[in-house]
Automatic annotation (TrEMBL):
Superkingdom of origin: Eukaryota
Annotated SUPFAM superfamilies: NAD(P)-binding Rossmann-fold domains
Coiled coil location: none
Transmembrane segments: none
Entry protein name: Short-chain dehydrogenase/reductase SDR
GO MF, one annotated term: oxidoreductase activity, acting on the CH-OH group of donors, NAD or NADP as acceptor
C-alpha cells in the first residue's frame, strides 16, 4: 500500500507474537507497518482483513506466504490452511482490487512434483467454490498423521497453481495480475521431504546444489510486482535451482 508517497505495510498473521516481532523489525528499518490478526482458513476473518486493507489503502500488492508444511498433524489441517486459505484470500480481495494491483501467492515446488491428476478433479481444484471445494471424494480429507499431511501438502501446492491460473481472467478484468512463486528447499524448515525423506538429498541435486535463500524468493516476488512484468499473469515462477527439472530428466 502507498499513501502520500509513503509505503505502508499491513502484516497479517494468526500469531500475535510473530506479528509483533515482524512489525518491530520493519519499524527499525524505517517502514510504517500496521498489523492484523487473521485466520486464513476462515473466510469471514479474511474478509475483515481485506476491509482493513481497503481502509488503509490504496492496496497495490498482496503477498500470501501463510501456510503449513507436510509435517502438520493431519490432512484436513493442510487443506484448510494451504488450499482453502488461498481461495479465501483470492475471493476476499478480488472486490477491492484496482488497476495495477498485484497478487503473489507463495506455493512450493511440490506442486510441480504432484502425480498427474484426473482432469475433472484438477478442474475442481481450479474452479470449485470455496463452499464445495473440500467435499470432493478425491481428497484424503480425514487421513491422519504425517502420511496424510504429506499427500495433502503436495495436492494443496498443485491446487494453488491451478487456482491462480483459473483466477487470472477475473483479476485481469479489473486490471490486476495474479501469480505464484514456488520455492525449492528452504533450509530453515524442518517439514520438507527429499526423495527418500531427506532434505540433504534434494540440495545435492544439480544444477544449483544448494537450498533456496530468502533473497532468491524476494527477488522473484519483486520481479512479479514490478511494472516491467505487466504482461505476466496466471503463471508460476519455480525458484528451486533446477531441482524439479533434474528430478524429471536426470533421474538416472
Amino acid at each position: 500500500m502507498q499513501s502520500s508517497n509513503v509505503v505502508v505495510v499491513l502484516l497479517a498473521d494468526v500469531s500475535a507474537d510473530r506479528l509483533s516481532i515482524a512489525a518491530t523489525a520493519l519499524h527499525n528499518e524505517g517502514y510504517f507497518a500496521h498489523t492484523a490478526l487473521v485466520d486464513i482458513s476462515s473466510f469471514d476473518s479474511v474478509k475483515e482483513l481485506a476491509q482493513k486493507a481497503f481502509v488503509i489503502g490504496p492496496v497495490e500488492t498482496i503477498i500470501l506466504a501463510a501456510g503449513v508444511g507436510p509435517a502438520a498433524d493431519c490432512a484436513r489441517t493442510v487443506y484448510e490452511i494451504d488450499l482453502l486459505g488461498t481461495i479465501n484470500v483470492i475471493n476476499a480481495f478480488l472486490p477491492i482490487v484496482q488497476a495495477g494491483f498485484n497478487f503473489v501467492c507463495i506455493s512450493g515446488m511440490a506442486g510441480h512434483l504432484c502425480p498427474p491428476l484426473d482432469p475433472a478433479f484438477e478442474r475442481h481444484l481450479a474452479t470449485a467454490s470455496r463452499e464445495r471445494l473440500l467435499a470432493h471424494p478425491d481428497f484424503n480429507i480425514n487421513e491422519p498423521g504425517p502420511q496424510g499431511a504429506a499427500a495433502a501438502y503436495d495436492l494443496s501446492m498443485r491446487g494453488k497453481l491451478v487456482r491462480v491460473q483459473a483466477s487470472a481472467a477475473a483479476w485481469g478484468s479489473r486490471g490486476a495480475r495474479i501469480n505464484c512463486v514456488s520455492p525449492g528447499v528452504i533450509p530453515a524448515r524442518t517439514d520438507q521431504r527429499g526423495v527418500d525423506g531427506s532434505v540433504d538429498n534434494l540440495v545435492r541435486i544439480p544444477p544449483a546444489r544448494r537450498a533456496v535463500t530468502p533473497a532468491d524468493i524476494v527477488n522473484a516476488v519483486a520481479f512479479l510486482v514490478n511494472p516491467g512484468s505487466c504482461f505476466i499473469t496466471g503463471t508460476d515462477i519455480l525458484v528451486d535451482g533446477g531441482i524439479v527439472s533434474s528430478m524429471r530428466w536426470d533421474a538416472e
